[in-house]
């Protein structure tokens, strides 16, 4: 019977040694007592250099030789003191470790009541690559869902969401907000004269031009068709007018080169202003009314919504 146990224990040791997963046992005072080949391979050091060493010394060697686990720290001692707080903080811990050579391992630490610890490592490089591809893919999908395909600026959905978040913040702080509706003049005749593709190119170039004149934290998006929205926070009436007028002027002065034609484009801008609680719908309606006035009083102009005169 005893022989049979011994036989099975030997078999287990044999399998553990041949396993692709790493196994190691650390003593209660963190000395590496034994480890199989797969574990030693993670650290790139021969058995003789690791067995009998303290965990801290093994990690110091990894840091110094830049082999084994990637240690993103300037100072190994402060890194070690952080890690030591985590080690044995629970009976069982699972965490991912990336190696300097680009491989990824899932580590598990199982601590016995007397402080001895069994460390297991599993190569998860393939899963990590798939995970990274999936993350990248879903980031791209999220970007696509938020971006207007033609102009590569925010689409209506993401523009409205950003503006609503900013309205909430500004209303709380009672800071001035300005909302512009910007519309290309006689855009239909551009399509009719030069074709729809030329019209698309005008939209792209105008979006680029407007974007380059705005500040990084101004919110800019394509609301639909040839209509764009801009939201400025922490803004006075005078600043809003100045920005809109500068935009109008820059567009009017720019010559666009579209499919062999030189085009002069103008825009009309309707502005709504607010200081206290408001909504996207309210700002949009007010700016739209102002834009209507701008169109009907000759185009290529900026009009502030009537009720905003006092703001
Ligand atoms: N090329 C192109 N045209 C578009 C797009 N979206 C909307 N349009 C066109 O934009 C034109 C808008 O025309 P209108 O609303 O009559 O306005 P307008 O000709 O710009 O005249 P005003 O706004 O009154 O100055 C329509 O002919 C739409 O077909 C687009 O993505 N690409």
TrEMBL record:
Extent of the signal sequence: none
Group of enzyme by EC: transferase
Domain GGDEF: from-to ranges: 175-307
Catalytic activity line of the entry: 2 GTP = 3',3'-c-di-GMP + 2 diphosphate
SMART domains the UniProt entry points to: GGDEF
SUPFAM superfamilies: Nucleotide cyclase (SSF55073), PYP-like sensor domain (PAS domain) (SSF55785)
Gene Ontology MF term list: diguanylate cyclase activity
Superkingdom of origin organism: Bacteria
One Pfam family this sequence matches: PAS_7
InterPro entries recorded: Diguanylate_Cyclase (IPR050469), GGDEF_dom (IPR000160), Nucleotide_cyclase (IPR029787), PAS-like_dom_sf (IPR035965), Rev_trsase/Diguanyl_cyclase (IPR043128)
EC number of the protein: 2.7.7.65
Cofactor(s) in the UniProt record: Mg(2+)
Protein name, per record: diguanylate cyclase
């Amino acid at each position: 019977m005893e022989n049979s146990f011994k036989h099975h224990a030997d078999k287990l040791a044999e399998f553990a040694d041949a396993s692709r997963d790493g196994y190691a046992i650390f003593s209660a005072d963190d000395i590496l007592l034994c480890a199989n080949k797969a574990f030693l391979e993670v650290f790139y050091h021969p058995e003789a250099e690791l067995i009998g060493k303290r965990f801290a010394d093994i990690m110091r060697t990894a840091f110094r030789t830049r082999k084994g686990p990637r240690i993103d720290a300037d100072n190994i001692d402060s890194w070690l003191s952080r890690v030591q707080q985590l080690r044995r903080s629970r009976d069982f811990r699972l965490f991912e470790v990336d190696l300097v050579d680009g491989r990824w391992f899932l580590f598990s630490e199982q601590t016995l009541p007397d402080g001895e610890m069994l460390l297991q490592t599993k190569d998860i490089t393939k899963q990590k690559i798939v995970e990274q591809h999936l993350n990248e893919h879903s980031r791209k999908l999220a970007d696509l869902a938020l971006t207007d395909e033609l102009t590569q600026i925010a689409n209506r959905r993401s523009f409205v969401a950003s503006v609503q978040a900013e309205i909430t913040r500004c209303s709380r702080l009672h800071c001035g907000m300005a909302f512009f509706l910007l519309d290309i003049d006689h855009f239909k005749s551009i399509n009719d004269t030069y074709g729809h593709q030329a019209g698309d190119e005008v939209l792209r170039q105008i979006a680029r031009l407007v974007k380059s004149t705005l500040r990084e934290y101004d919110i800019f998006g394509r609301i639909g068709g040839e209509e764009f929205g801009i939201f400025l926070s922490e803004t006075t009436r005078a600043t809003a007018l100045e920005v809109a007028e500068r935009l109008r002027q820059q567009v009017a002065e720019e010559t666009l080169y579209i499919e062999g034609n030189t085009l002069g484009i103008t825009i009309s801008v309707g502005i709504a202003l607010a200081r206290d609680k408001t909504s996207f719908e309210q700002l949009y309606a007010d700016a739209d009314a102002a834009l209507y006035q701008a169109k009907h009083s000759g185009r290529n102009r900026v009009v502030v919504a009537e009720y905003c005169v006092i703001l």
